[in-house]
TrEMBL record:
Compartments, as annotated in UniProt: Membrane
Origin: domain of life: Bacteria
GO cellular component terms attached to this protein's record: membrane
Major subcellular site: membrane
Keyword list, A-Z: Membrane, Transmembrane, Transmembrane helix
Record-given protein name: YqaE/Pmp3 family membrane protein
Organism: Aurantimonas marianensis
PROSITE patterns membership: UPF0057
Tagged with keyword Nucleotide-binding: no
Transmembrane portions of the chain: 6-24, 31-50
Pfam families: Pmp3
Family per record: Belongs to the UPF0057 (PMP3) family.
Length: 52
């Protein structure tokens, strides 16, 4: 299941984080990072998926 979340995180980072942790602080941080730059959003999403 983590492989699917990582693929989703590469395509749409906030969705990958949402699938892992829900609507918490990590989701909103990821939305902000994705708006500021797509690559930081991907990096954060993969980090969240790997950690939790």
């Amino acid at each position: 299941m983590d492989i699917i979340r990582i693929i989703v995180a590469i395509l749409l980072p906030p969705l990958g984080v949402f699938l892992q942790v829900g609507l918490g602080k990590h989701f909103w941080i990821n939305v902000l990072l994705t708006l500021l730059g797509y690559i930081p959003g991907i990096i954060h999403a993969i980090w969240v998926i790997a950690k939790y």
